[in-house]
């Protein structure tokens, strides 16, 4: 075995570079963090060929003294900590003192810097830590140029992607730092073309720092996304200090297929944390479709002693002293905020302004004047006129075209009488059906009508279209409701409430029903017997791949035990091998049960059933989305309708 030797400093730095410098984006991140720590108010970043050829970062910060430049590029030399104890209360972005040394070992590095009231200096290196500073003219601040990255490690340079791909990674690293510091002016250019020019966004005293951060988000990701953000904030008082959560989460209709739009900042540092990302996903459970990821811009401010930032070479991950309360704080804050927000798709985001009201008054006066100028025959509504010919037509196609009346007679308009249409034979036949097969009598969308000789509930201003959708008039305009999605949400929350309150009421079968399953499904069902028992399904082995259903939830007595169990078995088998959380599996089972029991597309509803469904909506927490994340309704405002009809 060869003798043990001390590695040369260059090799040590190149090994460290393998952990710190992964690609040009890593260089930009490290240099940006140093620039922010220097107190700079403007930072300009320029890259060429994705950063592989050149990375230049210019700041107007405090600068580096001329006699300290050679020390700045040595390993573990820093001005930000002085003892091991300070590692556990780091208040700066950089602190290890290895970034410049690692970068210098794999590139051609030039540093020019000057402090206020001192002479400037320049230091040049080419893969070696031995260099001397020389006088140079430069403004206050620091300019760092990194050229020919990985020129002396061609194996690593071979793993770099195309210039456009590397520029994308660099832009992402740039955005994370720029998001955390909205008061700093940042610019980013690639091959001479400006990609981002982010002017400082100071916090207006009357609107607070959230407005400044929203402006920075809009500058980076566009006004459409910024306009769909929901502000959140909470505080947790502890003995060690206050933990403040603030920022924005996106409306559920704004999602992505990846988690790259989830920005979590801890004391101004962009991090990745699986626990907090899981809490974010739990908060959006039932509001977004499976496979979609929410968008967030969240900041956590806490005493530095409660977080350890020294657990990852690139400082992308941290370790919290106690992550449980943080998980609960994030989950509780978002859920409370969602419950107090109107998340219906298309819902107006703000009340009309004074200018809008004034415009509405002017429009009303103009319309009144126009009506006064019209002739009597042109402006009267012939409410007592006979039913139009198309309403009397009973064939399967439109009636033959009839010419307009001659002799100068104007067209007359007829008002739609909703109550009269609802009582017509056609409307009655369309809406009178047998009561739904629903979950329990109290959840059924059935109520008595005139056929049963009892009172009818007050008529609802709702119209069923194609036996699928309900159209409801609202103060803002019109709302179109998906009957299946809304009923599914109502049933899901009823089931969940009953499960949380205790064991569900069960109904024992006189003769246990045998159910044949596939081997994987049978194994998954028997492994989840306790879980199924908590929702009222008593399943026991019978032999082979057959199981017996001994009891069934009383709420689902109108459904077939065999078919219901087969559907649940498919869900359980799909989760097999993943060690799913019992709560997640139970939630999926409740989703499946509520979906099977809800009214379906194509099911006609009676007036009473429509009324029961609409009455159940206000008492349902997340009635704006079904358990699978689809919206239950769409809002069309009067202004939108007027715009579609070109009235405004």
From TrEMBL:
GO terms for cellular component: mismatch repair complex. Residues 377-399 are annotated as: Disordered. The keyword DNA repair applies. One of its GO terms (molecular function) is mismatched DNA binding. Pfam families: DNA_mis_repair (PF01119), HATPase_c_3 (PF13589), MutL_C (PF08676). Residues 462-605 form the MutL C-terminal dimerisation domain. GO terms for biological process: mismatch repair. Keywords: DNA damage, DNA repair. PROSITE patterns: DNA_MISMATCH_REPAIR_1. Residues 217-339 form the DNA mismatch repair protein S5 domain. Belongs to the DNA mismatch repair MutL/HexB family. This protein is involved in the repair of mismatches in DNA. It is required for dam-dependent methyl-directed DNA mismatch repair. May act as a 'molecular matchmaker', a protein that promotes the formation of a stable complex between two or more DNA-binding proteins in an ATP-dependent manner without itself being part of a final effector complex. PANTHER family: DNA MISMATCH REPAIR PROTEIN MLH, PMS, MUTL, DNA MISMATCH REPAIR PROTEIN MLH1. This is DNA mismatch repair protein MutL. The gene is mutL.
